[in-house]
Amino acid sequence: MALFIGIDSGTQSTKAVVLDLDAKKVIADARAPHRLIDGLPPGHMEQNPKEWVDAMVSTIRAAVAKLSADQVNQIRGIGISGQQHGFVPLDEAGEVIRPAKLWCDTSTSEECAILTKKIGGEKAALKKAGLLFLPGFTAPKILWLKRHEPANFKRLRHVLLPHDYLNFFLTGRYFMEYGDASGTALLDVRRRVWSKEICGLIDPKLLSYLPELHPSHEAVGTLLPAVASQLGLPESVVVSAGGGDNMMGAIGTGNVKAGVVTASFGTSGTIYAYANEAIVDPSGEIAAFSSSTEGWLPLLCTMNVTTVTEQVRHLFNLDHTALEAAVSATPPGSDGLVLVPYFAGERTPNVPDGTGVLLGLTTKAFKKEHLARAAMEGVTLGMNYGLRRLAQLGVKAKEIRVTGGGAKSAVWRQMMADIFGVPVVGMVEDEGAAVGGALQAAWCVARLGGRKKAKVTDFTDGVVQINEATRCLPNKKNAAHYRELQQIQDELSIALRGVFTRHRALLNA
After folding, report:
1. What's the topology of domain 3-248+433-466?
2. Domain coordinates of the chain in residue numbers?
3. Sign of torsion, CA 195 196 197 200?
4. 88, 164, 348, 468: which one has the fewest Cβ atoms less than 10 Å from its Cβ?
5. Which member of 245, 281, 353, 430 is catalytic?
6. For the chain, first and last CA: distance in Å?
7. Is the dihedral angle over the CA atoms 380, 382, 388, 390 positive or is it negative?
8. pLDDT band, residue 257 (cuts 50/70/90)
9. Contacts made by residues 388-394, CB under 8 angstroms, sequence distance 24+
10. CB neighbours of residue 305 within 10 Å
């Protein structure tokens, strides 16, 4: 028997799963919430890293408590998935200097403009790094700290991402792998090395603050004795490289070879595919990320998915069953009500100053059912904007594996199929990022144990399974209607971008 723990530390909660590799199934799990910091100015989204640590410790302890003593002794490794891009600033002693600015923080638009100008424009950024400087990425957050909190920047000695910080807590080691590092905008993604030029644009010493880069099959180390005791685990448990939530989600959905496309409908929305080489989008809308499996992961990200549908659900005091009923009671297109769902700004397309906008409010289309369906349609159309861009770059989906909270809704899955125009199917085990962490840990332990040629597919094949009962095929009539609606939402987004910027300036005045 060989057991592996997978952790998914997200924006809203942390999930832990225990995977029995021999039985090819999850045998225990646990979950704990954490919070955003309240009362920040518009565009600022931050969390205290201590909450991630506390949630990880509590979920591991809760999951392990469900195992027998013999099973606990069979735990071989831990793999951590974490929300991407978050900036965790540490001092010389490894203490957190200030709360982490998150992937959904859009307060760094000015820093993005500064970096873009310094490097020679957007084309130069794509040539030298493979990515544009977008507010979600880590690089502008570091420059923001230097410009807005110079005393804190002066203390800076180590830069980590959220999952790296959790690895640091477990092992005491500063470590970063290619996948999550590719979302910092500090990496030359084609060569997988830190860009001295980009680091120098921010500060001459920044390169020395970044951890060494490692392949994703390498181990960070084993548990610190005190941490092992706290978790109730053997000190010999290996901590794998881990990765960003999208990279681990790719492993957990079997998206580790060409031809598989995954869509994650969570707090944010992502669609990504495996590639054997870096795919750099000349427009910069698709991120040229590395995977956490030695390949690449071209990816689109939207910042507004279940955050939008949950706002509507809470507004009308609906449970999830009632929300589905409300959506089902309204025809496709919501009787003309269209939502531009930029509640937290937007990344794809890059509209950091965006807000939510409703078009088509009439006496007929002003019921909770219309608002519920328009919300669900709006965020799905937003993801389809990026899916169509992926297709233009040669990554064309024939089927999409869906995961995340939105994938649990049968109504939503059918809507996805109609809007995307291809079949969608859910997974048997839906906690893709956590399962991906456990599978990467198994891969890592195998390599450490002498299987030098072990591939991640040796572990995903047979463990990762699609749930055929969830498969939805596109309805041709609905799909045609949504193609027209897509054009309306896209044109509305473009027309309003100048208005968004002026409106944000008014809010901040």
Report:
1. Nucleotidyltransferase; domain 5 (3.30.420)
2. 3-248+433-466
3. positive
4. 468
5. 245
6. 62
7. negative
8. confident
9. 389/281, 389/283, 389/285, 389/286, 389/300, 389/348, 390/261, 390/271, 390/273, 390/286, 390/298, 390/300, 393/279, 393/281, 393/286, 393/298, 394/279
10. 27
Residues 6+ apart with CB under 8 A from 173: 167, 220, 221
Is 29 among the residues known to form the active site? Answer: no
Please give the C-alpha separations between residue 280 and each of 93, 163, 314, in angstroms, as whole numbers: 38, 25, 39
Q: What pLDDT band is residue 338 in, cutting at 50, 70 and 90?
A: very high
CA distance 252 to 432: 4
Looking at the DSSP bridge assignments, the partners of residue 93 are none
User: Average pLDDT, whole number, for the chain?
Assistant: 94
Query: Which pairing describes strands 213-214 and 176-177: parallel, antiparallel, or unpaired?
Result: parallel
Among 94-98, 255-259, 398-402, whose mean pLDDT is lowest? 255-259
373 contact partners, CB below 8 Å, separation of at least 6? 326, 327, 330, 334, 337
pLDDT band per the 50, 70, 90 thresholds, residue 162: very high
> What pLDDT is stored for residue 474 in this prediction?
98
Distance CA 20, CA 28 (A): 9
Pick the closest to residue 324 from 410, 391, 256 (CA basis). 410
Output phi, psi for 336, to 5 deg.
Answer: 95, -5
- pLDDT recorded at residue 509: 73
Residue 45 · residue 99 · CB < 8 Å? no
Place of tokens 């490894």: 94
The count of other CB atoms within 10 Å of the CB of residue 294 is 15
The mean per-residue pLDDT over the stretch 497-507 comes to 90
pLDDT the model gives residue 120: 96
Mean pLDDT, residues 483-506 taken together? 94
C-beta separation of 108 from 268 below 8 A = no
Q: Which tokens sit at 460?
A: 């995903």
Query: Where does the pLDDT of residue 249 fall: very low under 50, low under 70, confident under 90, or very high at 90 and above?
Result: very high
Q: Which two tokens stand for residue 337?
A: 């009500």
Spatial CA neighbour of 352 closest among 139, 104, 149, 64? 104
